[in-house]
Amino acid sequence: VIAVQRRWQPKVWCVPFLPTDWEISWRWVDSRGHRHPNLRRGLSRETCAANVVPPCELDTRRFEPSSEWSVQVHGGSDVDGWVYGATWSSPNWGHKATMTDYLRKRKWVRAFK
């Protein structure tokens, strides 16, 4: 599950809000930048975007969580797991925001039995 934020002011990041941000404005997306398919049913866009951890669920008859959600930090991210890019389709995402980076994203993971 990927969390996305848009730069609103030089040091302020928020839920994507532009008309072109339709799918990523859900905040929780898949690897293609589309609304994550496992978001809890019936949640509004605003409710999903307000969650601080992914509001996703799987069929509990098949999948039982064995961990809590956590941010995946890696060598290409900053200490909080964020990578920065100009647009969703940017070929280069870096560990530090530049003046031309307007989006940031980070991956959340959870283990299941």
Short description:
The chain is mostly beta strands and 113 residues long. Helix content is 5%, strand content 22%. It has one helix and six strands.
Largest sheet geometry: 6 strands, antiparallel
How many runs of DSSP E, i.e. beta strands? 6
Judged by helices, strands and strand pairing, the structural class is mainly beta
Residue windows where pLDDT falls under 50 for at least 5 positions: none
Order of helices and strands: EEEHEEE
Total number of helices: 1
In which range does the helix fraction lie? under 10%
Walk me through the topology.
Blueprint: E1 2-9, E2 12-14, E3 28-29, H1 45-50, E4 70-71, E5 83-85, E6 103-109
Antiparallel strand pairs: 1-2, 1-3, 1-6, 4-6, 5-6
Describe the structure.
- It is built from one helix and six strands, in the order βββαβββ.
- It has one helix at residues 45-50; strands at residues 2-9, 12-14, 28-29, 70-71, 83-85, 103-109.
